[in-house]
């Protein structure tokens, strides 16, 4: 197996999506496939990559309908102004869609099927919302039949309810409280604000010029000036008797991301300094009703493949969609 390295990554700023007030979304005037193409074009040019050497462009999105219908990823190839001979895929693993493009790209390079792969992801939750979207129509009636009860789709189809269920388990097993979740969320926003102030995200964000001339280059979902008192005052969002609120849940966002993966040999050939080496990957499934538990077995699989244990990892990063995760 060949070593796989990350040589570049870039993203748009992430706006706050407002399906009911689209004019308040900083990126309301943009399609995310167009911006994803811009990200890829920028990286290919600044790293001096011969676009004909790109083995695949992989694009992830959870809701591939309307403007997020990705034409199998080929639309992004054109928007990035890559040669028509560059192949593409569109990938959907729901919340993990863009991460899965990295998994697939890494496997292509490890096995020698590609030397260079571009991974990308996008979502515009103002234009393509989850709630009330007529283009999202799971077979609810069938999945509510007794034969499927063990999968708990009644909970699994609503992410907030899965968080409520996971919270109850954590409260019983570990004594986790609403206050714990609120504090974790508050600290997350405080860290993000500190990172913005110190320019931590500057190099990874491609500034976007808005219609009014503003150069938009920051994540709008960071809530400054919040307090534990404000967090405690928020009402539950999914269960009137629950503990999951707007404060300890994920925001709705619009944005696009992209990353260039290479074999270690190809990066050396280009004279590019790797930003990181991908040692292993893991994915796992749990009951849909407690989907937030998924990172635990997935991490265990990745650790085992790498010959590591949790104690060997000095720094962990995990998606903070819900504080209870």
UniProtKB/TrEMBL annotation:
GO cellular component: cytoplasm
Domain called Thiolase N-terminal: residue spans: 4-265
Protein name: Thiolase N-terminal domain-containing protein
NCBIfam families: AcCoA-C-Actrans
One annotated GO biological process: phenylacetate catabolic process
Residue stretches making up the Thiolase C-terminal domain: 273-324
Family label: Belongs to the thiolase-like superfamily. Thiolase family.
MF term (GO), any: acetyl-CoA C-acyltransferase activity
PANTHER family per the UniProt record, alphabetical: 3-KETOACYL-COA THIOLASE, PEROXISOMAL (PTHR43853), STEROID 3-KETOACYL-COA THIOLASE (PTHR43853:SF21)
Pfam entry (one): Thiolase_N
Keywords: Acyltransferase, Transferase
UniProt source species: marine sediment metagenome
